[in-house]
Amino acid sequence: xxxxxxxxxxxxxxxxxxxxxxxxxxxxxxxxxxxxxxxxxxxxxxxxxxxxxxxxxxxxxxxxxxxxxxxxxxxxxxxxxxxxxxxxxxxxxxxxxxxxxxxxxxxxxxxxxxxxxxxxxxxxxxxxxxxxxxxxxxxxxxxxxxxxxxxxxxxxxx
Length: 158
Known about the structure:
alpha+beta, 4-stranded antiparallel beta sheet, 7 strands, 25% helix, globular
């Protein structure tokens, strides 16, 4: 049985590239831009914002699933700004349960390729947690919930 997880990344509007995304983590809400997703020109990037968000969330899911094997910590980006980035720190000591904490890093958004951020995430050494922006859940439920969120951005098949 899957337990509902209070975590979601949503597209607020289809117009523009600023203040058009919202991360929800428990009672915490953060509005951010899709700008860096829009200018991502790597081979794994998509010109379609929905596909780019699905790709980002697929990477989140993959990292959550990797923690199920051995525990540890993963950083999942959600806000890319010129002078800093916002991340979810997913920590698990037992490979079953996790704490998901939102926070900031001074790692600049322009140094990260959103469609392949995993290469850059080990550089997060200055994570600064945001007060009251955390949840606890199982890693299995987290991975399933992220996958469902990613599916919401993929085009429906008729």
